[in-house]
């Protein structure tokens, strides 16, 4: 009972930390989006406005992430005995959808300018100050969010970090476009907006790929590693049918353990608890372990 309570407390602490990171990133993304879009509108730069729209969708992604984490934090109940952790995955999928909508918006605007031959961007020193300043912020946000995502094994933070990283690459493209416009190539501005579109689509693909890995119950921990943790317990002769699933932050595992045939039920039960403890000690992101005891009599069922 104590171990279950400790696990629940750890999950709750993880969710609170993820929520805090999302709030910090949301505020920074809103500041970056406002700066880029406002100056892009004033200067007539399609690529700067596109980059600003991309940053706005970053902010929407943070909001979606906060909603997903709020739902994922709910405890297990009768209708969801395994908890609500996959709502975090659904939130990352929603971020992917927002990315697709952003790509549509940016791409449509760029194509419209190219077709109409409307190249209105005005490049000033302030343009570069705005873009370089927001680029530095984006790089810092990406590093912070990615580090937190790895530490907390959060799919939402990982997806959002990739989203913000794409924004940084896009900003670099926009800066390159502004340089080209200043050198006398006004068509470069909407062309770089198309590069923005491609970058967003690539990011969306990566988000969908990671989310679908969870929803398809992809194994989260190598079978040999989990088997080694079980074999570290004295009395365990072998382990097989090792399976894991769930989100990166909340993994469910089950395995069959072979023990001496003469072992009593009470001894086998005690051994299974030792195996559970050993597995969870080695892999803290495992929130539940199901151990099936089998006699080592030459048959593996």
Provide key terms for this protein.
single chain; 301 residues; Alpha-lytic protease prodomain-like; Alpha-Beta Plaits; three-stranded mixed sheet; 3 strands
Write structural notes for this entry.
By secondary structure, this protein is mainly alpha-helical. It folds into 2 domains: 2-215, Up-down Bundle (Alpha-lytic protease prodomain-like), CATH 1.20.1510.10; 223-295, Alpha-Beta Plaits (2-Layer Sandwich), CATH 3.30.70.1350. The protein is 70% helix and 9% strand. Strands 1-2-3 form a 3-stranded mixed β-sheet. Helix 2 packs antiparallel against helix 3 (86-116) and helix 4 (125-152) packs antiparallel against helix 5 (155-182). The longest helix has 42 residues, at 2-43. It is elongated. It comes from Gordonibacter faecis. It is found in: Membrane. Keywords: Membrane, Transmembrane, Transmembrane helix, Transport. Residues 22-215 form the Cation efflux protein transmembrane domain. Belongs to the cation diffusion facilitator (CDF) transporter (TC 2.A.4) family.
């Amino acid at each position: 009972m104590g171990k279950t309570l400790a696990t629940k407390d750890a999950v709750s602490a993880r969710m609170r930390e993820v929520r805090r990171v999302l709030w910090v990133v949301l505020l920074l993304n809103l500041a970056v989006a406002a700066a880029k879009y406002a100056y892009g509108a004033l200067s007539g730069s399609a690529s700067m406005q596109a980059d600003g729209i991309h940053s706005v969708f970053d902010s929407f992604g943070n909001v979606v992430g906060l909603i997903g984490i709020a739902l994922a934090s709910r405890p297990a109940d009768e209708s969801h005995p395994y908890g609500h952790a996959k709502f975090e995955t659904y939130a990352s999928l929603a971020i992917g959808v927002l990315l697709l909508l952003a790509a549509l918006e940016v791409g449509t605007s760029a194509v419209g300018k190219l077709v109409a031959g409307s190249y209105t961007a005005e490049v000033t020193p302030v343009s570069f100050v705005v873009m370089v300043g927001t680029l530095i912020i984006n790089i810092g946000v990406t590093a912070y969010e990615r580090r937190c995502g790895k530490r907390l094994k959060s799919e939402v933070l990982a997806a959002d970090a990739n989203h913000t990283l794409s924004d940084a690459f896009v900003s670099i493209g926009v800066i390159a476009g502004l340089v080209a416009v200043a050198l006398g190539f006004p068509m470069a501005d909407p062309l770089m907006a198309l590069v923005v579109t491609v970058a967003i689509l690539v990011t969306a693909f990566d988000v969908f790929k990671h989310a679908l890995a969870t929803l398809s119950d992809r194994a989260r921990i190598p079978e040999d590693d989990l088997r080694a943790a079980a074999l570290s317990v004295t009395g365990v002769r072998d382990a097989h049918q090792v399976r894991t699933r769930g989100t990166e932050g909340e993994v469910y595992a089950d395995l069959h353990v072979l023990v001496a045939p003469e072992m009593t039920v009470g001894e086998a039960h005690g051994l299974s608890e030792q195996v559970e403890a050993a597995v969870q000690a080695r892999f803290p992101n495992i929130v539940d372990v199901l151990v099936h005891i089998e006699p080592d009599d030459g048959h593996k069922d």
